[in-house]
Amino acid sequence: MDYVIRIHASPLDIPAGAWDVLLAQQDAPSPFMQHAYLAALHTSGSASPVTGWTPQFVSLWQGDQLAGASALFIKDHSYGEYVFDWAWANAYANHGLNYFPKATCAVPFTPVPGSRLLAIDATARQALLQAMLDVAKEHQLSSLHLLFTSPNDRAACNALGLMQRQTVQFHWCNANPQGQPFDCFDAFLGSLAQEKRKKIKQERRRVADAGVTFRTSVGVSISSEDWEFFYQCYERTYLEHGNAPYLSRSFFEHMQHDMPQNWVMFVAQREGRPIASSLIAVQGLGTTEAIAYGRYWGALERVDCLHFEACYYQPLSWCIANDVQRFEGGAQGEHKMARALMPVATYSAHWLAHPAFADAVERFLERESAGVDNYLDHLAERSPFKSQEPQ
Known about the structure:
Number of helices: 11
Structural class: alpha+beta
Strand content: 25-35%
Oligomer: single chain
Order of helices and strands: EHHEEEEHEEHEHEHHEHHEEEHEEH
Largest sheet: 11 strands, mixed
């Protein structure tokens, strides 16, 4: 099949409607691959050449039809990716070679699994991936990396010989070990082992005893004042850890105006004033496939266990009340198992131009994959649900 391949220095160069129609056809669409989300990252300056994310978006065309598209970036660092390859970069440097710049196909700052190679079919998907490899070779880049891929993405990567890497995240499902959905938060607590149940109740009591209550806003009901307060909290938390925030205020303004239906905000209040906020993304509300994604949080005051309440218990309670089937907790965090977020495998794919380093990384990934499998088996033995308790 012959395609016209185009390379774009901005996501705005690809028609938004055509992109989103293509996204809806994929095996694992998410809000973070919507055209508006990627465009907001670019136009807000959050993910742009200035911050080390140089767009080289790839599109495939059959006449006027968009047959494939991907969010590809040339990068001179590995920040904001959450699939860590710093050891690979150090190994290159120790041998006098440059690991950067490299090519990364990902949603910046967003460790959420989902479709990366948007395509009308498997043939177009492989052609799109080949076009991305051609970009990496043309620019003499060290490597190409596809992060948090979907099953269809992985099939294309296997077909073209990319190396696969496995990592672990923690996701919550709205079902007890017998597969029944929870009808309230107390029912969720009732499914847990006594020790876990007691710990969560203690953490929630500390927040309540501190006089903290929560207010929840969904979609267009999130006011401009709420968005402004949220950003104050988000920015403060980053600065307290010695870093500037990845996402600019302008990015969240785009979210308010361009994708309001995809956000839920929880605002913590004490003595009539807001003190903290968390923000989750949602997809498919009102359907049997509804998903929520834990994303951002921040606080202006310190309260014991407030983070757990704002980022887990309030969102999980809301998910139960709104028939959300899954809550994805983001990158890493074995501690999330205590809140019944269970381990799941996530995947990335990698191509390295240097043959010797490609061989070395392939051997490393074989050992790492075996270790991840053992880790998942170990975690499975530590289920927080009471049905797993010995009789």
